[in-house]
Every structure is written in structure tokens, then in C-alpha cells.
Write a structure and sequence with these properties.
By secondary structure, the protein is mainly alpha-helical. The protein has a single domain (19-170), classed as Up-down Bundle (Four Helix Bundle (Hemerythrin (Met), subunit A)). The protein contains five helices and two strands; from the N terminus they run H-H-H-H-E-E-H. It has a two-stranded antiparallel ribbon with strand order 1-2. The radius of gyration is 17 Å and the shape is globular.
Length: 175
């Protein structure tokens, strides 16, 4: 039996309202959009690179966003001492290496990281700050609000990549 990416019930439409609702609504919309771009594709299709020489694939984007969810919400903002999901010391682009990746496990990992990220941010003030360190040893402050905005930007950018990859795979276009 060939594995295919699962359907999502429906994408969450962003709510109008207060800032927190807008930020979480738009982030959830973009999270759902990435999953929507993968619907009904086989494991092999999910691994197909966009166009040479790029190695970018839909499954690589899923794995990248899993890493990004963990890094920004849990490791950096919440300060949780968690291992990286991929061995970046051996390969800085490890999450994009999908030749032997298990799509079912990767989609489950993304969903788990999204839930854990939401838990890490729940009840926290948007103005709450954390310290980021530069390579030179200096530091700067970022807020939870900044993380939400960055994550919306990150998903939006990669959803544009996903649009093009999906169209190349089977001609499907649209939101």
C-alpha cells in the first residue's frame, strides 16, 4: 500500500479581534496551508526536489518547519533544553535530506511540535522577552510577539515554495 499525505479537515481561518487571536490565527492558517499543499501526494512525490540543483521538496519543508517550530518556541523562547531533531554538525541542511525519510513520522513530528509550541506559548505575555546570543558573544532581546511574527513570515515564505513544488508535481494550484 502506498502512503499518501493525509487530508486536513479544513484550514483554520484567522479570526478578527485582539492581537493574540490575530497572531495565532494567522500562524495556524499558514501551518494548515503547508499541510494542505501535501494532501493526496505519495511518499515518493513528497520527496521530489523542486528543480535542480535545489534539493527543496515538500517533505523537506515539513521537516524544516518542524525544526523551526521547536527552535523558536521551545528551545529559544521557552528555554527548554531539547536536542535538535537533525544532526546539523554533520550536515547544515540535514532536514532537507529526505531520500530515506519517513513521511508518516515526519508529519506526526510536525503536528507534535506544533502542539508543543502552542503549549510553550500558552498564557505567556506577548511582550515576554528572551535573550539571543550572536556568534561574537554579544546578545539581544526578542519577544514572543517577534516569534509569532517571524513564524508567520517563515511559513508564508515556504508556503510560496510549496505552491510551486506542488504545481510542478501534479498541476494543483490555489490556496
Amino acid at each position: 500500500m502506498t502512503w499518501t499525505a493525509p487530508k486536513i479537515d479544513r484550514r483554520t481561518e484567522p479570526e478578527l479581534g485582539a492581537e493574540r487571536a490575530l497572531l495565532t490565527g494567522w500562524l495556524n492558517y499558514h501551518r494548515d496551508t503547508l499541510l494542505h499543499k501535501c494532501v493526496d501526494l505519495t511518499a515518493d512525490q513528497l520527496r521530489i526536489a523542486s528543480v535542480e540543483p535545489s534539493t527543496l521538496s515538500l517533505l523537506g519543508l515539513v521537516r524544516h518547519m518542524t525544526y523551526v517550530e521547536r527552535a523558536w518556541f521551545r528551545q529559544r523562547f521557552a528555554g527548554q533544553d531539547l536536542p535538535d531533531l537533525f544532526d546539523f554538525t554533520a550536515d547544515p541542511d540535514a532536514e532537507f535530506r529526505v531520500e530515506t525519510a519517513d513521511p508518516e513520522a515526519d508529519f506526526a513530528a510536525l503536528r507534535a511540535e506544533i502542539a508543543a509550541a502552542d503549549d510553550a506559548a500558552a498564557g505567556r505575555d506577548l511582550d515576554e522577552e528572551f535573550t539571543m546570543r550572536r556568534r561574537d558573544g554579544s546578545s539581544y532581546q526578542l519577544s514572543l510577539r517577534w516569534v509569532y511574527l517571524h513564524m508567520i513570515e517563515e511559513y508564508a515564505r515556504h508556503n510560496g515554495h510549496a505552491d510551486l513544488i506542488r504545481e510542478r508535481l501534479d498541476g494543483v494550484t490555489g490556496d
